[in-house]
Amino acid sequence: MLCYTRDELIGLHASDVVAGTEIPHLEPVLDALNAGSEYHREWQFRRKDGSHFVAEVIGTKLPDGNLLAMVRDLTERKRAEAREREAEEAERAQRAKSEFLSRMSHELRTPLHAILGYAQLMEQDPRSPDDQESIGEILRAGQRLLVLINERLEIP
Description:
Layout: H1 6-9, H2 23-34, E1 39-46, E2 52-61, E3 67-73, H3 75-124, H4 129-153
Antiparallel strand pairs: 1-2, 2-3
Helix pairs in contact: 3-4
């Protein structure tokens, strides 16, 4: 995990293999273990090449006074959790987009359909040529606007 040989590890202090942010936690952990407490926590470790990884550390004091620690690399689990968070975030974004488009569709199309409906009713009644021309312009502009709205709100 740490990319050291066994011989290279012998004699190293824990502060040589943990991330710098973890160094202040070493002494309290060792004190707790020496006092007989069990220990379980995630730590940031530093490999021989300087790269960091997260590991789960479980420690205990053995009856002979030695400390036993088990360290499990959590890199793959952390990657999987990150992928899961990214997928959840993408799903939330997609839901927000769908909700926005749905609301915009309703908020824009509803009044436009009302305008077009009234203009169509007015078009059926006999009017002066100027009124008919104005009503025709309302209908053409409304239809162009409806096409534009439909194009914008149907974005995948």
